[in-house]
Design brief:
heterodimer, A: alpha/beta, Aconitase, Domain 2, 5-stranded parallel beta sheet, 18% strand, B: alpha/beta, 7-stranded mixed beta sheet, 7 strands, binds iron/sulfur cluster
């Protein structure tokens, strides 16, 4: 009998071309994504006189720098010359190398981690890379997906292979059913609050348990997306019937006889009974409340019913110093109830929470209500935007007072100019609350789309469950 | 890549945990080309005041630490994004090695690709080194990759671990692409087999 293997092991073994002592392997990369920020890797490649070795296994998407306003005019609508240059450079690099490109005016444009799964480019059992740390998102389809830097990206472009040290295996099991008003975002914020931002460093995570199985594929993407905020490069969920149903008929999904062949391969992927993980973490999904971050690290979060911690009660001098500094930046007094924190802005979007289900959840809260702070939504992809418009969600957002923008990374990292002004407090569906992430001096509170919608209405952070029962 | 064998240099204590990549280089500079003055973006929002002048409170702006080539930090240095710029700004500023109890995974890998040596040492050792560097501003630390040791200002020596393949690559300054392409026959044989099983992926 063969030793039981995890989902991760099966994918790793299948892709290892060469193995070296110390657990390193030269891996075959099935799918690699590039975006505007990949210009450094393309530049280095060109300087070495090399070309993309397997153009058909690479895909380019414009997302990080594209403006969310004035998009009807395509590239002509980009006013900042540096930004325009980056968007054009991606198009030129893709063209010169024969790589498929979803540019600023392509109907398939969107945030790379929304577009990859949406088009069926990401599939179970594949190794997927991108020069972006939230590549872990693609793991929701049962792929091994991780972010890389510019040098590794250059290697992949030039060889379609990558030397990698094998990470350890961590299984996070979330049992129980989520209460109404709770979503995948609350699950992952609770996990990060529990294990910390370095809690999974050196591991590949497999998410399991009834609460994870109960999530849609989109919800699983939200969970896998923030694996990196727990320190893990990759997070994954075993493929099941939902995964197969999700992929059927998508543009790049296998077709005809290949579809049947693919399903047979995918069905064999889930971890075998008795497979051993290096570490196990469990969480009770039914005990979760909506989560909100109060600090400047994604681990600095708490249930909405909690209060801002008091540095005086910190367990160590280091911790106290850190808390004092964080509360100063966030301008929060110790002991303030999270529900009493006033906000100045609300933002819905990003590769964490910019999918159609996220917009539906926010719209359900906003219907018939008005926002009390400037608020905007940037759908995760142009396809999500069209779908939302077909469902009339854009009307609900607009009538509530939200700005309905085009798709891109927008205020997640504010590279495109969608900045939260210094000193302003933003309720955001994004994934990082680092100092200055949404703009210099901006204060970010991470939460779910429904919670951001509720905060936008109330003008302060609030428990969405109260609005849902009204 | 620039080879790394050993460095003896002034070290600066960075008394922070979770030094994220946005802190090392804010996102708004990622569109900048890696010009001659790229190192000026390092720790930008900590290093400069709003009017652009140096923030005297920041450690690298204090005279004894200005020429530091080694940093000693807290847990989880370089967590956050995959931006390799976070390594380039360190290198272009003149940093050759960062010592910390742990690193963000992607940042650790990026550092190795560029000849910046990330050294993992136990938290107590990092704390002790930082204390010594505060007590003796301008003190030097030695980082020796061949021996896999760090020598503190008090001459105490600490051994660190590094993957043998990575150590070799750093010592020789080898280029990954050329190394991988030497294996092309194996790679092509693999791809033929692999894509025969899953032709839609080719
Ligand atoms: S939405 Fe944010 S996290 Fe996602 S790819 Fe864009 S910048 Fe990165």
């Amino acid at each position: 009998m063969t030793t039981p293997r995890t989902l991760f092991d099966k994918i790793w073994d299948r892709h290892a071309i060469v193995r070296r002592d110390g657990g390193e392997a030269l891996l075959h990369i099935d799918r690699n994504f590039v975006h505007e920020g990949s210009m450094f890797a393309f530049g280095a490649l060109a300087r070495e006189g090399r070309k993309v070795r397997k153009p058909r296994q690479n895909f380019a998407v414009a997302d990080h720098y594209v403006p969310t306003l004035g998009r009807e005019r395509g590239i002509a609508g980009v006013t900042d010359p540096e930004v325009r240059n980056m968007i054009e450079l991606l198009a030129n690099n893709a063209r010169a190398n024969g790589v498929e490109h979803f540019g600023i005016d392509d109907p398939r444009q969107g945030i790379v981690h929304v577009v990859g799964p949406e088009l069926g480019i990401t599939q179970p059992g594949l190794i997927v890379t991108c020069g972006d740390s939230h590549t872990s998102t693609h793991g929701a389809l049962g792929a091994l997906a991780f972010g890389i830097g510019a040098s590794q990206l250059k290697q992949i472009l030039a060889t379609q292979c990558l030397w990698q040290k094998k990470p350890k295996r961590l299984r996070i099991t979330v049992d129980g059913a989520l209460a109404p008003g709770l979503s995948a975002k609350d699950v992952i914020l609770a996990i990060i609050a529990k294990i910390g931002t370095a809690g999974a460093t050196g591991y590949a995570i497999e998410y399991a348990g009834a609460a994870i199985r109960g999530l849609t594929i989109e919800g699983r993407m939200t969970v896998c997306n923030m694996s990196i905020e727990a320190g893990a490069r990759a997070g994954m969920v075993a493929p099941d019937d939902k995964t197969i149903a999700y992929l059927e008929g998508r543009e790049f999904s296998p077709k005809g006889a290949h579809w049947d062949q693919a399903i047979a391969l995918w069905r064999a992927l889930p971890s075998d009974g008795g497979a051993v993980f290096d570490r196990e973490v469990t969480l009770d999904g039914s005990a979760l409340a909506p989560m909100v971050t109060w600090g400047t690290s994604p681990e600095e979060g708490a249930p909405i019913t909690a209060a801002v911690p008091d540095p005086a009660a910190a367990a160590s001098a280091d911790r106290r110093a850190r808390l004092e500094q964080v509360l100063r930046y966030m301008d929060l007094a110790p002991g303030t109830r999270l529900q009493d924190v006033k906000i100045d802005r609300a933002f819905i979007g990003t590769c964490t929470n910019g999918r159609i289900e996220d917009l539906r959840a926010a719209a359900a809260v906003l219907k018939g209500r008005k926002v009390s702070v400037p608020s905007w939504v940037s759908p995760g992809s142009s396809a999500v935007k069209r779908q939302a418009e077909a469902e009339g969600l854009d009307r609900i957002f607009r009538e509530a007072g939200f700005d309905w923008r085009a798709s891109g990374c927008s205020s997640c990292v504010a590279m495109n100019g969608d900045i939260v002004p210094a000193g302003m407090r933003c309720a955001s569906t994004s994934n990082r609350n680092f100092e200055g992430r949404q703009g210099k001096g901006a204060r970010t509170h991470l939460m779910s789309p429904a919670m951001v919608a509720a905060a936008a209405v109330a003008g302060r952070i609030t428990d969405v469950r109260k609005l849902l029962t009204q | 890549m620039k080879p790394f064998t050993s460095v003896i240099a002034v070290a600066a204590p960075i008394d922070m945990t979770n030094v994220d990549t946005d802190k090392i280089v804010p996102a708004r500079f990622l569109r900048k080309a890696r010009g001659a003055d790229y190192g000026k973006y390092l720790f930008h929002d900590l290093r400069y005041r709003a009017d652009g002048s140096d923030n005297p409170d920041f450690i690298l702006n204090q005279a004894p630490y200005r020429n530091a080539q080694i940093l000693v930090a807290g847990d989880n240095f370089g967590c956050g994004s995959s931006r390799e710029s976070a390594v380039w700004v360190l290198m272009d500023y003149g940093i050759r090695s960062v010592i910390a109890p742990s690193f963000g995974d992607i940042h650790y890998g990026n550092a190795l690709q560029n000849g910046l040596l990330p050294v993992r040492l136990a938290d107590e050792i990092c704390k002790k080194l930082r204390r010594e560097l505060h007590d003796q501003p301008g003190a030097q630390i030695a980082v020796d990759l061949e021996e896999q040791t760090v020598t503190g200002p008090d001459s105490a020596r600490y051994r660190f671990e590094i993957d043998p393949g990575n150590r070799e690559k750093l010592l020789k300054g080898l280029d990954d692409v050329a190394l991988v392409l030497q294996r092309l026959p194996e790679i092509e044989a693999f791809e033929k087999r692999y894509h025969a099983e899953a032709p839609w992926l080719a």
